[in-house]
Amino acid sequence: MSRFISIEPSVCTGCQTCEVACSLFHFGECNPFRSAVHVIRREKGGLVTSLPLVCQQCSHAPCIEACPTEALFRVGKDSPLIIDEANCTACGNCVDACPAGCITLDEKTHIPLVCDLCGGDPQCVILCHSHCLTIGDDMGADNTYRIERLAALLDAEDLIMKRAPEGDR
Amino acid sequence: MMAYLRAGKILRINLTDGNIRHEPIEPYITRFIGGKGVNLKLLFESVHKETKPFDPENLLLFGVGPLAGTSFPGSCRTDVTAKSPVTGALGNSGMGGYLGPELKYAGYDHLVIEGKAAKPVYISIRDEAVEIRDASDLWGLDTYETPFVIRKELRDMATKVVSIGPAGEKLVVYASINSGTGNVAARTGLGAVMGSKNLKAVAVRGTKGIEIAKPKEFLKGCGKLLDSIRQAKFYPDLHEYGLTRIHDREMRGLYDLLGNATEECKNICEADFLKKYLFNRVGCFACPVACFDSYDIPGAGAGTAKCSPYGDLSWDLRNPDLMIFWKSFVQCQRYGLDARSLSNAIAWLMELDEKGIITPEDTDGLKMEWGSPEVILSMAKKMSYREGIGDLLADGLPAAAEKIGRGAGEYLLISKGSPSDMHIVPLKTLMLGSAVSAIGEDAQVQPFIDGVTSRRFALIDDKTGFEEAITRYKDRAEKEVGIREAADPRATKGKAELVRQDEERADLADITGICTWMTSFVGLPVNADVLAEFMTWGLGTHVHTDMLISAGMRMHQLERAFNCNCGLTREDDRVSKAYYGRLKPGGQPMPEITATEFELEKMKDDYYELMGWNIKTGIPTRQTLESIDLKDIADKLRL
C-alpha cells in the first residue's frame, strides 16, 4: 500500500485548520508558515477560492530526484517522504522541483517542510471538517497524475502564488 | 517574550503624528483575558464622556482573544471596539474571517488606532514592519476593490485586508468594516469611526506562531470536539446549507408571532435560492461549520452572505423576491453599509408612508411602499453616498426622525439609538436583553428557554395543556438558573437570570476569541468548561471554569462602566415605543408573553439586583466592582 493525503478541491472552505494542525503537531505552535500543507486562497469580487496543497507522495518523486545530497528519500515503497535534516543543505531544489509547489522551506530552520503523514495518523485529515483532505491509498500504482492534476488546478484557477521578489518592498 | 496562546503585544498606531509603538499585553490578561475584554479596558482608560465618536481622541480597537488563531473550532474572531456614533456610547462589533488570527501571527493581540490622519491612509502590518501608507488612490473604492488593489500594491495576494467603503468615508453612522468576502464588523457604526480617522484599510500578514503549552492534548481535544460538533442535531444542515434551512424555519416562526407577514413572503425559501445559485461554501478561520454561502449571479452581483441579511432585506420589508435581497445585499457589502440598519431604516420609511406621515415628496419622489423593489434597490446607494433622503438617514435614525417631525420618531424600532432587527419578537427576555445591552439590541443574546415556551404558548390552542407542555423547560430552568418559573413566558420572574445566562455565553466567546455559533446558540457543544479545558492545555497552567466566568462578568461590568462614564443611566435602558404591542400572532395582540413598560421596569430591577447595580441609577456599585477585582474602575467612576 502507498498512502497519501487525497485532496478534493471543490469542498475546501479555506479554514486553514489543516495548516494549524500540521504546525502544532510538528512544532508545537500554531503557524501556517510552518506547515507541510498550504492553503492557497484567492479573493476576488466578493468570492473566495481556496485549495490546500500537500505532498502527493509521488512514486517517481521529482523532489527526491532533484535533491543533490540525497537528504530526501523513502525507506521502502510504502514509506512517506523522509528528510534527513543533517544532510539537507537547504538549497531549495526540491521546492523548485515539485510541479505543484507542495514543498516550502521552513522560515526558521530552512529545512523543507515535507509531509511525513504524521507517522501514520495525519492530523490535518482528522481536523478537516469538509472531507477535503482524506487518506488515500493507491496500492503502489503509478501516481504522477495526482501532482500534475494539482498543478493544472492551480493554473486553471489562477491560484499560483506570485511571491514578492526579494528586497522589493 | 512570547507567552502561550498570545502573540504578546498591543500595537498602537497614532495616525496624527505617525507614532508606532507597542506594549506588552501581559498586564491585562489576568483580569480581562483578551479580545473584547482587553479592548474594553483600553477604551475605558482613554475615551471619556467628552470624547465625541468622530474626534481624533476616540480609539478604534481590534482585539483578538487567546484561542483565536489556534485549531480550536471557530477560533476566528476579531472584536472591533470604539465609541459609537450610533449609540453615543459603547460601540462594538465582532467579525469572523481571517484578520484576527493573522494579526496574532504578525505578533499582536491588539491593534489600537489613535488620532486622525491628515489625508487618506491605510495601515500595512507585516510582522515588525508596520507602515502607514498613502491611500489617496484607494479613497472612493468599494470593499471588494480595495483589498485587491492593496494586495497588488504589497505584492502579496495572501495579505488579509479589512476596509471601509464609501459609507465609512462619508461618515454614514451605519457604516461597516468589511473583509470583502462576507466578514463584517457591521453594527454600531465602526466603519464611520474608521472613516473619521481617514483610515481606509488595515492589511496584515504574519509569519510567526502562537505557542501551545500542551500541543498533543490540544490537538487531541480539537479532534474530540470536532466529533461532538458533527453529532449535533443541526450540524448536517449547517454544513450543507449554511444557515438557510434553519433561517427559513426561524423567519416563519418569528413572523408567526409578529403576525404581519404578507402571504407572498410565506413562499420565501432561502434553501431553494441556495440550491439554485450557490457558487461555493466558505467559512472563517478554523471553522468546522462554514456558514457562509457565496453566489456569483450574472446581472445581480457576487458576494458572500449568511443568516440575517436574507430576512432583513426580504421578510422585514415585505419583499418576497430573494433576488432583490441579493442585489441590495451586494450593494451593502460593496459600499460598506450595515444591511440590518438599512433594513430598519427602509422599513421605518415604509411605515411612515403607510401612516401618511411622509409622502414621495419627502423621499426624492420615491413612493416608500412596502416591498417596493425600486426602493430596496436604491436605498443602499442613497445612504452610503448621502444622496437625497439617504443623507437625512446617514446621521442616524433618531436625528432623521427629529428633522421629519410629525411624530415620525414614534415608529422607530431602536434601543440605545441602534436600529433593531425588524424581525425581533418582543418576548420578555428579548425586551430585557435589548434594554440592558450596552450596544442596543444584540442578536447574539437570545435566551433559548423563553423563546421556546413563548412559541408554545402562542401556538397552543388548549391553554390548560400548556403547563404540562412546558414542564421539561421548567425542569431545565430550575437546573440552569435555579428558578422554575423562568420558563413560564407569562411571568417576569427569572427573566433576568435567563438573560444573564445567555449574556455569559456570549461574553465567554468574546473574551476567548471564538465564534458564539460554536456554543448552544445553534446547538453546538462549546461551553465554559470546554473553553477552560482548552485554555488549560494552551497555557499549561490550570484555568478554572469559574475563573473564566468571572472574567466574562468583569467584561460585562466594564461595558456598563464605560457607558456610565459616558453618562448613561437606568433611563437609557429602554426599548423604543414601537417594541410594545408589536407581538400579534394571527393579528391579535398577546400581552401574556410580551412585556408592558411596567413589566420591563420590574425585570430591570431583577437584572440590576443580579448584576449588583444601583436600582435607581443602573450604575454598578463600588461593592460590586470591588468584589470582582475592579476597584480601579470604581475609582475612575468616582463611586
Structure description:
The complex is a heterodimer of chains A (169) and B (639). Chain A has 169 residues and is an alpha+beta fold. In chain A, 23% of the residues lie in helices and 20% in strands. Chain A contains five helices and nine strands. Chain A has a two-stranded antiparallel sheet. A two-stranded antiparallel sheet of chain A has the order 3-4. The longest helix of chain A is centred in the C-terminal third of the chain and has 13 residues, at 144-156. Chain A is globular. By secondary structure, chain B is an alpha+beta fold. Helix content of chain B is 42%, strand content 13%. The radius of gyration of chain B is 23 Å and the shape is globular. The interface between A and B is large, with 43 and 53 residues.
Topology:
The complex is a heterodimer of chains A (169) and B (639).
Chain A: E1 3-7, H1 17-27, E2 29-30, E3 38-44, E4 47-53, H2 62-66, E5 72-73, E6 82-83, H3 93-97, E7 104-105, E8 112-113, H4 123-127, E9 133-137, H5 144-156
Antiparallel strand pairs in A: 1-9, 3-4, 5-6, 7-8
Chain B: E1 9-14, E2 20-24, H1 26-32, H2 35-46, E3 60-63, E4 78-83, E5 90-95, H3 99-105, E6 110-114, E7 121-126, E8 129-134, H4 145-154, E9 160-163, H5 166-169, E10 177-178, E11 184-185, H6 190-196, E12 199-205, E13 210-211, H7 215-230, H8 235-241, H9 244-258, H10 270-277, E14 278-282, E15 292-297, E16 301-305, H11 308-312, H12 322-335, H13 339-354, H14 373-384, H15 389-393, H16 397-404, E17 414-415, E18 418-419, H17 428-436, H18 448-459, H19 466-469, H20 471-481, H21 495-512, H22 528-539, H23 545-565, H24 597-611, H25 622-627, H26 631-636
Parallel strand pairs in B: 1-6, 7-12
Antiparallel strand pairs in B: 1-2, 3-4, 3-6, 4-5, 7-8, 9-12, 10-11, 14-15, 15-16, 17-18
Helix pairs in contact in B: 2-21, 2-23, 12-14, 17-21, 21-23, 21-24, 22-23
